[in-house]
C-alpha cells in the first residue's frame, strides 16, 4: 500500500515538474508544441469582405460624423469579453520602443491598435493619417468614444485632464508645463461631484448613444471620477495584474529619459485632438482572430492605397495561440497592406520577454518591435509563423 502511495506521489511530482518546466524553464529559442500551429493550406475559408465606402487614390483627410459612425458600426464584430476591465494600460515599458518606432514607421500611414489610452501615445509619436483601434470588448470602444468627446470639449491638456477626472486644480499652468507638473497638481485636487455631473451631460450630448451604450459610458466615466489619477489596472479588480497608475503612465519615460506620452506636451495633445476632430481615430469591436474587423480594415486600406505603419498588439497573441485561432489571426494580418517598414508593437511577458532579452536577470516584461512582413511571408508559403518565430524577430 505504501509503495502505491509513493508511486502515485512520484507520478504527480513528475507531472508538476514537467508543467513547471514548460511554463518557466523551456528554452525560448526552441518553439514548443503549444506555440507552433500545424501546417495549413494557403487557401483559407473566409467570409467575403466588401467596402461600402468606395475607392480613392488616398485616405480621406477627414470623415463626416455620419461616415465615422457608419464605419465603426459596419467594420465591427459582435462584442466579446475579457477577464479584466481594462480602463487603462498596465505596461510600464510601453515607451521604450518609441525611439526606434519613429525611425522605422513611415509617416502618413495607418496605425492599428488595441486597448485604451496607450494608443494615443503611439499615434502622437508616429503621426499616422488614420487609425483604427480594435478590441474584443465593446466597453473599450465606448471608452474610446468617451475620450473622443473629452478631446473635443477640451482646448488644452489642463482642461482635458480636469474633465477626465472631474477635478479642478488651483494652479496656473504654462503651455510648456511637464506632465509631471500637470499631474502633481491633479493628484492633490479633490473630486468635484457637480463638475462630474456637468461633464457627463456634455459627454453624452457629444456622443448621442443608445441607452445601453450611454449607461456603459457613464459607468466608465464614473470610475475615472471616483478613483482619479491614482486609477490602476487592478483598481476595480483585485485579481487583475498590478500596474502603474494613470499618473505614472503619463509621466514615464523611455530608456533615454524622454517622455512620449500623449499628455507630455501640448503638441502631442493637439495632434491627437485634431485627429479626433477629423474623426480619423476609429474605434472598432473585433477579435484579432475574428472573421471581419481586421479584414474589413484591410479591404478599406487596400481600396485607398494605404499601408499599415504600426500595429500595437499588446499581448493579445498569447490568448489566441490555439491552432484555429492562430491560423485565423495570421490570415487576417496577411490581408493588411504592408511593406518592409510596417511593424508590430508587442508587450512580452515572462519567458517570452526572455526570448528578446536573454541576458536580463529573471522574468520581466518588455515592449518590442518586429516586422509585420514575416506573417505575410509565412502565410503566402502556407505555414503561418509561430509566436516564438515572431518574437525572435523582435527588437
**Overall body shape:** globular
Q: What is the topology, as strand order, of the major beta sheet?
A: 3-2-1-4-5-6
Annotation, overall tally of beta strands = 6
Average pLDDT figure: 87
Structural class: alpha/beta
| Major sheet description | 6 strands, mixed
- The count of helical stretches stands at 16
Range of helix content: 40-55%
Question: From the alpha-carbon coordinates, what is the Rg to the nearest angstrom?
Answer: 22 Å
The total domain count is: 1
Strand-residue proportion: 5-15%
Low-confidence stretches: 1-44
Beginning-to-end CA distance, first to last residue = 56 Å
Order of helices and strands: HHHEHEHHHHHHHEHEHEHEHH
Describe the structure.
By secondary structure, the chain is α/β, with parallel strands linked by helices. It has one domain. The chain has 16 helices and six strands. Strands 3-2-1-4-5-6 form a six-stranded mixed β-sheet, with helices on both faces. Strand 4, helix 13 and strand 5 form a beta-alpha-beta unit. Helix 5 crosses helix 6. The longest helix is centred in the first third of the chain and has 24 residues. The chain is globular, with a radius of gyration of 22 Å. The N terminus is likely disordered.
Amino acid at each position: 500500500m505504501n509503495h502505491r502511495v509513493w508511486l502515485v506521489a512520484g507520478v504527480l511530482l513528475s507531472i508538476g515538474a514537467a508543467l513547471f518546466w514548460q511554463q518557466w524553464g523551456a528554452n525560448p529559442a526552441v518553439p514548443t508544441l503549444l506555440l507552433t500551429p500545424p501546417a495549413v493550406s494557403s487557401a483559407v475559408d473566409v467570409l467575403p469582405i466588401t467596402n461600402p465606402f468606395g475607392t480613392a487614390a488616398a485616405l480621406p483627410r477627414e470623415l463626416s460624423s455620419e461616415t465615422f459612425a457608419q464605419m465603426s458600426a459596419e467594420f465591427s464584430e459582435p462584442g466579446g469579453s475579457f477577464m479584466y476591465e481594462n480602463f487603462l494600460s498596465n505596461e510600464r515599458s510601453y515607451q521604450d520602443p518609441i525611439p526606434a518606432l519613429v525611425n522605422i514607421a513611415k509617416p502618413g500611414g495607418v496605425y492599428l491598435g488595441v486597448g485604451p489610452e496607450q494608443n494615443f501615445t503611439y499615434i502622437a509619436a508616429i503621426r499616422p493619417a488614420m487609425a483604427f483601434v480594435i478590441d474584443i470588448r465593446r466597453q473599450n470602444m465606448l471608452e474610446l468614444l468617451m475620450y473622443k468627446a473629452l478631446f473635443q470639449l477640451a482646448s488644452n491638456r489642463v482642461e482635458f485632464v480636469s474633465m477626465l477626472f472631474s477635478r479642478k486644480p488651483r494652479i496656473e499652468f504654462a503651455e510648456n508645463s511637464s506632465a509631471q507638473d500637470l499631474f502633481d497638481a491633479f493628484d492633490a485636487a479633490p473630486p468635484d461631484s457637480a463638475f462630474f455631473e456637468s461633464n457627463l451631460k456634455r459627454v453624452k450630448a457629444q456622443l448621442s448613444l443608445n441607452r445601453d451604450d450611454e449607461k456603459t459610458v457613464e459607468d466608465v466615466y464614473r470610475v475615472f471620477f471616483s478613483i482619479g489619477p491614482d486609477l490602476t489596472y487592478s483598481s476595480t479588480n483585485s485579481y487583475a495584474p498590478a500596474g502603474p497608475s494613470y499618473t505614472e503612465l503619463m509621466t514615464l519615460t523611455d530608456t533615454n529619459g524622454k517622455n512620449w506620452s500623449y499628455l507630455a506636451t501640448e503638441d502631442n495633445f493637439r495632434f491627437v485632438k485634431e485627429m479626433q476632430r477629423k474623426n480619423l481615430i476609429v474605434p472598432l469591436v473585433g477579435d484579432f482572430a475574428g472573421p471581419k474587423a481586421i479584414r474589413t480594415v484591410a479591404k478599406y486600406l487596400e481600396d485607398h492605397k494605404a499601408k499599415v505603419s504600426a500595429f500595437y498588439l499588446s499581448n493579445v497573441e498569447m490568448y489566441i495561440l490555439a491552432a484555429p485561432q492562430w491560423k485565423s489571426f495570421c490570415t487576417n494580418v496577411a490581408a493588411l497592406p504592408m511593406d518592409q517598414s510596417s511593424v508590430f508593437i508587442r508587450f512580452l511577458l515572462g519567458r517570452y520577454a526572455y526570448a528578446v532579452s536573454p541576458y536580463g536577470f529573471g522574468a520581466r516584461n518588455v515592449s518590442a518591435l518586429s516586422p509585420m512582413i514575416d506573417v505575410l511571408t509565412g502565410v503566402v508559403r502556407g505555414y503561418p509563423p509561430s509566436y516564438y518565430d515572431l518574437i525572435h524577430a523582435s527588437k
